[in-house]
Design a protein that fits this description.
Layout lengths: L1 H5 L3 H9 L3 H28 L1 H22 L3 H27 L6 H29 L2 H21 L29
Length: 189
Amino acid sequence: MAHFGTYTYVTPFLKDVTRAGPRLITALLLAYGIAGIIGNLVAGTMARRALRATFTAAAGMLATATLLLPAIGAGKLGAMVLLILWGLAYGAVPVCSRTWFVTPAPHAPETASVLFTSSFQATVSLGALAGGATVDSTSTSAVMVLGGLAAILAMLTVQISSGPGQLGSPGHNGEPTPARPAVVARRRR
């Protein structure tokens, strides 16, 4: 929700606060997109080994970028660094989210994918609603702070939850459990 409440307002923020022109905005959003691809690839390898840590890091990076954007995003260099950080962070989110949903349901990936897609659409809707209401009543800087606070809540939620598919399991660290090979009984003749 943090991303979807804020990203819509990046271009207005860059125009109004950073005083960036169309060419610079294009370059900054391109850098964000490239960073997102890198974040997606890096998270793909890291989430398999440390899902909770990867998800927490992504949410923390997103919170850092959006909370600092009003403070240092007025400068072009500050905006560039924070948008790259944001791109890296958000690139990891879909990988972590999908892994979180699919891990507890290795034999029902379609069901897990439906839940993932539904939750994703809900966060798009709620984020857009919260972001729009905030911008209408305050500013693009305020919506960045609100997004940062939402990312902190996400980070805390990932940390205090018991992990994917392990609700209430004592001592579970929230990391995905490697799939166990099916044991096939052989009939002796």
